[in-house]
Amino acid sequence: MNAQFKKGVLELIVLKSVVNKDMYGYELVEEVSKVVDVNEGTIYPLLKRLTNDHHFETYLKESTEGPPRKYYHITASGILYEENLEEEWVEFASKVSGFLKEKKK
Amino acid sequence: MNAQFKKGVLELIVLKSVVNKDMYGYELVEEVSKVVDVNEGTIYPLLKRLTNDHHFETYLKESTEGPPRKYYHITASGILYEENLEEEWVEFASKVSGFLKEKKK
DNA sequence: TTTAGTACTTGACAATGCAAGGTAGTATGT
DNA sequence: ACATACTACCTTGCATTGTCAAGTACTAAA
Prior knowledge:
Two copies of one chain form a homodimer. Chain A is of the alpha+beta class. The longest helix of chain A is centred in the C-terminal third of the chain and has 29 residues, at 76-104. The first copy, chain A, has a single domain (7-104), classed as Winged helix-like DNA-binding domain superfamily/Winged helix DNA-binding domain (Arc Repressor Mutant, subunit A), CATH 1.10.10.10. Chain A has four helices and three strands; from the N terminus they run H-E-H-H-E-E-H. Chain A has helices at residues 9-20, 25-33, 40-52, 76-104; strands at residues 23-24, 56-61, 69-74. Helix content of chain A is 60%, strand content 13%. Chain A is elongated, with a radius of gyration of 16 Å. In chain A, strand 2 (56-61) and strand 3 form a beta hairpin. Chain A has a three-stranded antiparallel sheet with strand order 1-3-2. Chain A binds chain B through residues 1-9, 11-13, 16-17, 19-20, 34-36, 85-86, 88-90, 92-93, 95-100, 103, and chain B through 1-9, 11-13, 16-17, 19-20, 34-36, 85-86, 88-90, 92-93, 95-100, 103.
């Protein structure tokens, strides 16, 4: 997969995932991987960024299957940010698709 | 506009433009700007990259409206590359859209 | 001759993804 | 007890690519 296409979109996919329900990092890596190839070294720094920007809050929870999990919960600011980003993506994607189709004629 | 969405897509838009007809840099800046905001400092290095990678060939042509124009002509390799990239983009965009819709439920 | 428009180039910078490595806890098999 | 594997988290250094800002140079119109 083209690595460059992902730029910015990963953030949107992570936000959109966490909107639905609180999730922990490792779980997000697997969730996001269903849509685009991604590895841990990408997701963890991204989660830290979004938390620093107050789009996420975190809490720890014990697990019976390994070390404690750090859950990410979306904030009000995160919800707004996600809605905005999604709108921008839809508009962007449709512009690009429109251009490609136009040139195809 | 989200700067990150553009990564990789600009290359596709530039390639797709030049597939149709030979174009010069300044003309491409204006053409591409119809789809996504972009500035000269982005396009010229991109054209140089694509030329170095043998996806474009160039030639100079005099102009009555300023300095000579450097025209870009797509090569066979460039055509293949463009087709590939376009295919990847379509697949990528549809995956992302699909994910967003699925989460919306 | 000054200004505006066309045209190209470059260098320092920022954002973001990747590869590779490290730390730990739990569970399973020997 | 020990090794292995899976879960879970985190960090560092790097590459790629877009942005900003500045500079060069030619033509034409005021």
